[in-house]
Design a protein that fits this description.
about 80 residues
């Protein structure tokens, strides 16, 4: 199960203002089938998945009692994050 915090839900509208369109399905796919997971900030995890030609989608979440809680998400430049794969 995946739960979105209030901040994560508000983030959709924030990104839309900048013409960046991310769907809940994009977030769920990144968490369930990431290309890479960054565990360097435990207990937070950052799931990363290709988003478009130039960007990756990074989803910050934590697991609580078997529920993945999405805290925030953001697009990042591939050239900045691809070396982490």
């Amino acid at each position: 199960m995946i739960h979105f915090t209030k901040h994560a839900l508000e983030k959709f509208a924030i990104l839309e203002k900048y013409k960046v369109y991310v769907s809940k399905a994009d977030i769920i796919e990144a968490v369930q089938n990431p290309d890479f997971i960054d565990d360097s900030r435990r207990p937070l995890r950052i799931a990363q998945r290709d988003f478009d030609n130039a960007r990756v989608l990074r989803v910050v979440y934590k697991e609580e009692l078997g529920v993945k809680v999405v805290i925030t998400f953001y697009p990042g430049r591939k050239n900045q994050y691809e070396k982490r794969k």
